[in-house]
Design goal:
By secondary structure, the chain is of the alpha+beta class. It has ten helices and ten strands. The chain folds into three domains: 109 residues, no CATH class; 78 residues, Helix Hairpins, CATH 1.10.287; 180 residues, Heat Shock Protein 90. Strand 8 and strand 9 form a beta hairpin.
């Protein structure tokens, strides 16, 4: 029963019960007097006259006692009715209001670790439920804000270390050149190359931070176009292969995607995705003969790109968090490999903005496989939107086997 109906019923009870009881008493008194009337006749000059008299005296029944009993009973009934009505209204109105008052007092003190509930059939109960929903959302926002602040503190700490290390190296090598320590051309060239490498590392870090700020504001600039997926990754692998050879890492590429398959993508941001994943693999590579394999796998409405390495792998408890902003696995924290912890978060954001999905699989000690999907164009140049989760997550039993040399037509 709603609050309005409860109030109407309560007022009706308060008004009607006294009226009914008063009518009952009046009827009882009138009935009592009627029973005490005696009928008689009297002769007059005009004839007979009928008269009624009220009996009084010892033989007449007295009316004070039943009337008094009736009045006492009426008063008791009114009091009982009022008490029941007040209790009913108290349970319906005051208790939910007290619950809300205590809840607001807790929130004023900054305590959100409580729950309230109400009867969903009345207005105050619905208000309690809405208040509880507000409390839950507010607590989630505060928890998210606290995590964000903690992540920001951790980011600043990481940046301080990751900037301090190359800056110290740059300063040391620059002082060596100025002080004449690099007294031959070969040594000067080595110092300059080191300075350039450290400056490049700093540039990458600053670039990631700049992109992160755009991610945080949801204003990543995209320039989508029609991209030939086979040609794109063929060029990408050829560019990366030269750098990988210097680091003792071989790159392999295989594609089972038909020639002339196009995807909608921003080529620059897609290159950032590939570079971030490969850069992560190179950074943590712990094998003397490293290997990175890229595969293109056709699905119903998308192309699946796999990037596999034979590095140290990722622990299972870290695997679920690697795409979170600022997250760095405990093992990587210990090695102090550097980085902002934003690379894979940027990968996830870019791929999702492309309409694809991203994931990872890993076996500790054997390596990791990162994969993502990109929707393909149909013949009328529209993007196929029906990317099924089952297709996305399923690994092909007989996928393309990568070949060394960088390309497969």
């Amino acid at each position: 029963m709603g609050l309005k109906k409860r109030l109407l019923v309560a007022f009706a009870i308060i008004i009607l019960v006294p009226i009914l009881l008063a009518g009952t008493v009046t009827a009882a008194v009138m009935g009592f007097n009627y029973r005490n009337l005696e009928k008689g006749t009297m002769s007059t000059e005009d004839g007979e006259t009928i008269y009624y008299v009220v009996r009084n005296g010892p033989s007449a029944p007295r009316m004070e006692l039943p009337v008094r009993q009736t009045i006492i009973l009426m008063v008791l009934i009114i009091l009982l009715t009022a008490f029941i009505t007040v209790v009913w209204l108290y349970r319906s109105l005051i208790r939910p209001l007290n619950v809300l008052r205590m809840a607001t007092a807790n929130m004023k003190r900054g305590n959100l670790d409580f729950t309230i509930s109400g009867n969903p059939d009345d207005e105050l109960g619905q208000l309690c439920e809405e208040f509880e929903e507000m409390r839950v959302r507010l607590k989630e926002q505060i928890d998210a804000r606290m995590k964000y602040e903690q992540d920001t503190i951790e980011l600043i700490s990481n940046i301080s270390h990751d900037l301090k290390t190359p800056l110290t190296a740059i300063k040391g090598y620059a002082e060596g050149i100025m002080d004449g320590v690099a007294d031959c051309e070969e040594k000067r060239s080595k110092y300059i190359r080191t300075i350039y490498t450290k400056a490049s590392d700093m540039s990458v870090l600053v670039d990631e931070l700049s992109l992160y700020s755009k991610i945080d504001s949801n204003i990543i600039p995209y320039n989508f176009g029609k991209v030939d997926i086979n040609a794109y990754f063929t060029d990408c692998v050829e560019e990366q292969s030269l750098d990988m050879e210097v680091k003792g890492i071989t790159m392999e590429f295989a594609s089972d995607v038909p020639a002339g398959t196009f995807v909608k993508a921003d080529s620059e941001q897609l290159r950032r995705v590939v570079n971030n994943i490969i850069g992560n693999a190179v950074k943590y590579m712990n094998k003397p003969s490293g290997s990175i394999k890229i595969r293109l796998i056709p699905l119903k409405c998308c192309v699946k790109i796999e990037i596999e390495d034979n590095g140290p792998g990722i622990e299972e408890n870290d695997l679920a968090h690697i795409f979170e902003r600022f997250y760095r696995a405990d093992s990587s924290r210990g090695t102090r490999k550097g980085g902002s912890g934003l690379g894979l978060a940027i990968v996830k954001k870019i791929i999702e903005d492309h309409g694809g999905k991203v994931g990872a699989e890993s076996t500790p000690g054997e390596g990791s496989t990162f994969f993502f999907t990109l929707p393909i164009y149909t013949e009328n140049n529209t993007v196929c939107e029906e990317v099924e989760d089952a297709e996305y997550s399923a690994l092909p039993e007989n996928g393309p086997q990568p070949e060394k040399g960088g390309r497969e037509e």
